[in-house]
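User: Protein folding is very new to me. Would you mind checking the protein record under this note? It all follows right here:
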Amino acid sequence: MQAELKFNKKQFAEAVFKEYGIQIKPPELIPEGAVSHNYKAAGSDKKTYFIKIYDNSKEGKKASALSKRYLPLIYKLKNEGNITDINVPYITKSGAMKMTFNSMTVMIYDFISGVPIGDLRKLDLKMSMNLAQDMGRYHAASAEWNEKPDFEKIYSDIPGLESRLKSVIKISRHSGDTTSCGVLKIVLDGFENRCGGYMDRIKKLAPMMKNLKGPVVFCHGDLHGWNILADKNNHLHFFDWEFSFFGPPEGDLWFMTRLPDFEKFYAEYRKNFKEHKLRPEVMEYFAGFYSLNVLASCSLRVLSETNEEEQDRIDIDIVKEQVVKLIEMEKNIYG
């Protein structure tokens, strides 16, 4: 989740009309999104639009650069895979999938009325089955592309991850007594003693990841419940593909181990993607690396003491969630 951006909304609406030919009213913040700033805006055509903005922060620039790769792929998944419930951005008058405003990257989508499914641990069985069917279809369609795995671009820099985690531990010990840093210290209480064990497991599993066999699919890469929207008809829509990659299906499946009944979910998933055989160790690698990486990024932002209080609150909530995921990881994956 991101805090409100400061920009001239009237000028923004004028820029949207110039680039897309769409007349919108000043956009309203939607307080969700780990990297992007999300808004909705009413159009003169009585439609509502979803607006994704990447700011000029390091994370925003990185996500903007990644969009050059994943946007064509979600178009391909929608069209070649005949998966109609994927929401793709509008094309500008010049044929681009995004525009620039105040040096920020902007993408405009149809606004889908609905709610994020939220905490996967509370998802009912019917919705879990819908989710299994959708994910199975996405993976099966992209497996036919015969792409090579490239998950290493996100999940291989173990020394870098370890260095950032050490920085979190070191800085948090000596950080100031601001409200945000104080709250973060409480959230991270006990993490220092567990961190080494998490990293040891990742290092032990890393050689296996270099020699994986089996299908390579287009993974969303960030499938927590806040990136999955259920519309009024209970159709599911996946959002925020910034961390997508080609790799084993476990790169997405590990998120679903938090469901109340993962075995039933996976059985339904297999009906749509029959050739897959589950590898818990691969899920553990992705789960540990992902949670530690997000924890480090959000913690370091808070400890920099340069963010607004609202952004610190959002980052601290995300850190809390990763701490819980790490504690529950072994039980969720291995039972």
About this structure: The longest strand covers residues 48-54. The chain has two domains: 9-111, 120-334. Strands lie at 28-30, 37-42, 48-54, 99-101, 104-110, 114-116, 217-219, 228-231, 236-238, 245-247. The first helix runs from residue 9 to 20.
